[in-house]
Specification:
With about 350 residues, the chain is of the alpha/beta class. About 25% of the residues lie in helices and about 25% in strands. The strands form four sheets. Strands 3-2-1-7-8-9 form a six-stranded parallel beta sheet, sandwiched between helices. The protein has a three-stranded mixed beta sheet with strand order 4-5-6. The protein has a three-stranded antiparallel beta sheet with strand order 10-11-14, with no helix packed on it. Helix 6 links the parallel strand 2 and strand 3. Helix 3 crosses helix 9 and helix 5 packs parallel to helix 9. The longest helix has 17 residues. The chain starts with a helix and ends in a 12-residue tail after the last strand.
Length: about 350
Amino acid sequence: STWGRLSFAFLSPLMAAFFSPPEFSDPPAELAAKVPALAGLVSAAKHLVVMTGAGVSTAAGIADVRGGKGAATRERLGKAAPRGPTGYETPTVAHMVVQELESTGTLKFLITTNTDGLHERTGFPSKKMATLCGTKTELRSRLADGKVGDAMRAASPSASKPFARGKLTVSAPGYSAESVEVDALERAMAAIERADLVLCLGCSLAVAVQRLPRLRDPGAALVIVNLQDTPLDSEATLCIHGHVDTTMLLLAAELRLALPRFVERRSFVVGNTHLLERRAGKAPPLHHWRLIVKSPALGPLDLESVAFELPSWHKPSVVVVPSNPFELVRADDSATGYPVTITCNFERAPGEALAPFP
């Protein structure tokens, strides 16, 4: 509402970090005018840097942080935390557009505060991406009002590098604290300082690490696409309010990008063990065998169930295994081999029904 937007304008960034501002979208006519302006900025940019937050992943079924149903909002209201990412969600339209911008050479660097791995799943090159949230040795610093880098260098004066590898808890006046990976932060800061256009997608910009766009060159443009107002809106060249997927799909059409289809790749291996038991007299040997479907690595196997179908003389001839380990153990005295059909039923991530590229 207009009143909600006006009231948020008087909130300090500190209050914005703890109270969810209202969500709203630009009217269709206004969005139709803003997207060509965004496309012009992207086309003219020599060093485009994109920064993504939780808002790019909500269409994949992952809750954001400070939205109406976000994790921080629910915690503040005493409600149960939303389900976190499983690692098997499908990348959204926004993820695929970001990937295509990199593939065409337009996007030079990507910064994300997300831990869901969806950018990685699109095949975005790791050397051009900084995933800020990490889990290593903790280092604490309170950011001064000046340059972010100066304050963090002061946090570790004895380090051979500007600051030690590990995890840094950063905070600043008017911003809530955030844990970040120092090595990734160094690369993100360097990219921002080279940027002539910083495009923020689905970022609340209400945590200290998301103030990185303020390190951009004074002549660099800043564009913010988000459902809520942010503390940096007054500094932005262009603000677009609405769902990130909608804006990015319109941007892709304006730039005539041919979006790639997301191809889901899920690997598993089938193991087979066999033991021959010799029996007394003229009884044929007994074959003890075991089939198991398992992950090729140490990670989880995203299977809901596995069905083993055997010849009809087996009783039962179809065996459905509903949980891990997905294995079938049998014994028979057949003198010849026979086929076994294995059907793997994969789990569906909550966002898959909304996947833009099935």
